[in-house]
Design brief:
Keywords: Ribonucleoprotein, Ribosomal protein, RNA-binding, rRNA-binding. One of its GO terms (molecular function) is structural constituent of ribosome. This is Small ribosomal subunit protein uS15. Part of the 30S ribosomal subunit. Forms a bridge to the 50S subunit in the 70S ribosome, contacting the 23S rRNA. The chain has 88 residues and is mainly α. It has a domain of 61 residues: S15/NS1, RNA-binding (Helix Hairpins). It is 76% helix and 0% strand. The longest helix has 24 residues. The protein is globular and about 40 Å long.
Length: 88
């Protein structure tokens, strides 16, 4: 689980305007950080199938958000991909 300070830091990095907390860019940033944390947990605990299922749900949600961004805001999609280091 992300702490509130880490979450605020991620929101500050990806927000579009002052009060932005739920845009697609912010959601993708939070999901990516949480997925990295969960992936390292699964490397240490390979039989934790409940967490693996949660990770797969996060992957699907991030994929849908990125697909939305690529069709509706291609310039912010490109910036986000480069910032997070994702391959597309």
């Amino acid at each position: 689980m992300l702490t509130t300070t880490k979450k605020k830091k991620i929101i500050d990095e990806h927000k579009k305007h002052e009060k932005d907390t739920g845009s697609a860019e912010v959601q993708v940033g939070i999901l990516s950080t949480e997925m990295d944390r969960l992936a390292s947990h699964l490397k240490k605990n390979p039989k934790d199938n409940h967490s693996r299922r949660g990770l797969l749900g996060m992957v699907g949600k991030r994929r849908k958000l990125l697909q939305y961004l690529s069709t509706n805001a291609p310039e912010s999609y490109g910036k986000l991909i480069k910032k997070l280091g994702l391959k597309r």
